[in-house]
Amino acid sequence: MTSSVVRTALLILLAVAFPASAQAPKPPEPSPAIVIHAGHVLANPGEPAVGAHTVVVRDGRIVSVEAGFRPAGTYGSGARLVDLSDKYLLPGLIDLHMHLAIIMDSDAATNASEARLALAAAGYARRLLDAGVTTVRDVGDNSGVTLALRDAIARGDVAGPRIVAAGRIISRTGGHGAKAPVAGDIPYRPAGCDGVESCRRAVRENIERGSDWIKVTVSGSGREAGGRADAAPILFEDEMQAVAAAAQQAGRPVAAHAHSTAAIKLALTQGVRTIEHGTYFDDESARLFREQDAYLVPTAFIARFVRSKLDMFAGGSDGKSGEELRAWADAGIAGPGRAWRAGIPLGLGTDGGPSFEPTATADEIGLYVASGVPAAEAIRAATRNGAAVLGMQDSLGRILPGYLADLIAVDRDPATDVATLHEVGFVMKDGVIHRAPGAADGGTAPTRTDQ
Hints:
- This protein is an alpha/beta fold.
- The chain has 2 domains: 34-91 and 400-442, Roll (Urease, subunit C, domain 1); 93-389, TIM Barrel.
- It has helices at 3-17, 20-23, 108-111, 114-130, 145-155, 196-209, 237-249, 261-269, 283-292, 300-308, 310-313, 322-341, 360-370, 375-381, 384-389, and strands spanning 34-41, 53-58, 61-67, 80-91, 93-98, 133-138, 162-165, 169-172, 191-193, 214-217, 254-258, 274-277, 295-297, 407-410, 426-429, 432-435.
- A 7-stranded mixed β-sheet has the order 3-2-1-4-14-15-16, with no helix packed on it. It has a 6-stranded parallel β-sheet with strand order 9-8-10-11-12-13. A 3-stranded parallel β-sheet has the order 5-6-7.
- Helix 9 (283-292) links the parallel strand 12 and strand 13.
- It is globular and about 65 Å long.
- The protein starts with a helix and ends in a 16-residue tail after the last strand.
- The relative contact order is 0.15.
- Residues 440-451 have low confidence and may be disordered.
């Protein structure tokens, strides 16, 4: 038998055994589109809203944004119409500074139980989502609960914002956020470090545990002497350098808690992505922010809370007097406007968690405006800038084709009335509707396919 005959016979056998339909299965049919008729669209926060548009969502992403209201049937059979023709549509809010597993007013049983704490954090995460917060950066949880919650939300086991998590807080041994657990706490090993090797190891241990970001405290807290304007950093320069270098090597950005002027400058010179709080920045700090393309996350919300509870937070062995603490809180509340006037790029975060209402992020936007930040820029900080901080500027923070379908809607133009962000009536995350007008208890409202 010739070789050509053999090849022909083999081809016939293969065709019989593996028909063309089996070799090249048909691609799956696209899922039905969700078609949103939005009366006004803040497609690019920081710029004015545009008028009536049709936003089409499929498979978790925005596929088109078209002027006017187009019939849902234009986009295929089974397309569902969501009528927001009298609403303002904008990207979901991004809170860059939260602690989902820290509950200041929790009972002892919850504080001592990973299961109870996880359930409490999950419940709060759902409330955040209903309030229009679709992405959260959690910047410190020594218990590990937030890492598990992040993964559960990503799998779809529970509803909540997309979480980017830092895990354990890194500092010097006994430093802010890296103190040993006390009686009644969930047992954990703090990420305290001393010296170059120790600080590198703390970063690498966090990454092994699943940290998306590295959180380091370079000053004391706002209520401590180590958080005063003229306080020295609580890390040595080589320790801060080791933290930043180990994070950079592994491709993890760094968020640096810093109140004092020297701590802010030390962190910025090591290339951190964000400064958290940043109460006492000066002109040189502002220059470093701009040169390093770093962002400030001022957390005016928590400064206002401390101001309202001076008797609770003042004093202690390393604490400030009530007068000092009031001055710090006032500086923190004024911080966003002062930073904006200095040309410092702004992200937005609350330092909130389950101890507070889920509208804290909207409160923070209002505090930005009260301190002198234009409303459009405050909204941009909570959307586009937040996405840029997270390295997700090509998929979050705008309403554009190809972006993830994280969308919220309110009754009035938030660029002229930011208070409307306290009453979010529509929430979509990853193309799934979690809250809609006319739905009870924040559920999904009925949609129509006859348009």
